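Changelog note: in this version the structure field was regenerated for every chain. One regenerated record is shown below for reference.
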Amino acid sequence: MCYLVAKWFDKTGSIAMRTQRGKELSEMIDRLENRFGFDRLQLVTITRPSAYGEYEPYTFVRSEDELAELLATQEAAI
């Protein structure tokens, strides 16, 4: 188990989703990078959100769709 964390470079806080390492995670990261780019958005995988204070506060989501929807909302506000 791990967490995929999405953080806009110019915003405080991040979005985190609990997931599993592997091909599906890699493909999800590719889809998100294709949609939102990687010049303003950082995508990282971590094991324990509490160990990475630089990404706080976290907004936890349960699905890729929810993650993408929240990213789209945040992107529109930038």
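Spot check on this record: Strands lie at 2-8, 14-19, 41-46, 58-61. The CA atoms of residues 7 and 42 lie 5 Å apart.
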